[in-house]
Each structure stands twice: as structure tokens, then as C-alpha cells.
Specification:
It is built from 1 helix and no strands. By secondary structure, it is an all-alpha fold. The longest helix is centred in the middle third of the chain and has 80 residues.
């Protein structure tokens, strides 16, 4: 009968340790999810910013190409008139 009491007490200790480990692991998982979510949000914001900057730069490049073409045409016309 004493062995049964020890076993019951031992089982309770094991169950408590298991519950404590589970609680710790759940907290760790929740924390990692928060970190991942925060990092994903930061990445998304940075990516959107870069995309907007790229669009602006592409527009500037296209405007410069138009200016180059216009200036080349003016130079051709000036040479043809001379």
C-alpha cells in the first residue's frame, strides 16, 4: 500500500512537471509568434517603401529618357537647318 501512495505522489510530480513544461513551451511559442508577426510587419513596410521608391525612380528615368530623345531631336533639327 505504501508503494501505491509513492507512485501516486510520483505521478502527481510528473504531471506537474509536464504541465509546467507545457505552459513554458506555450509561452515560448506565443512569444515567437509575436516576434515573427512583428518582423513580418516590419518587412512588409520596408518592402512597400522600396517599391514606392522604385516607382518614383522609374518615372524619373522615363522622364530623363524623354528629355534625351527631345534634345537629340533638337540637335538633329539644328544640324539639318545649318
Amino acid at each position: 500500500m505504501k508503494e501505491e501512495i509513492k507512485t501516486d505522489h510520483g505521478d502527481a510530480d510528473i504531471e506537474k512537471a509536464y504541465a509546467d513544461q507545457r505552459k513554458h513551451l506555450e509561452k515560448s511559442v506565443d512569444n515567437e509568434r509575436r516576434v515573427i508577426s512583428k518582423n513580418a510587419n516590419t518587412y512588409r513596410k520596408a518592402n512597400n517603401k522600396m517599391m514606392k521608391e522604385n516607382v518614383e525612380l522609374l518615372m524619373m528615368i522615363n522622364d530623363l529618357r524623354k528629355d534625351v530623345a527631345r534634345l537629340q531631336m533638337q540637335e538633329r533639327n539644328r544640324r539639318a537647318a545649318a
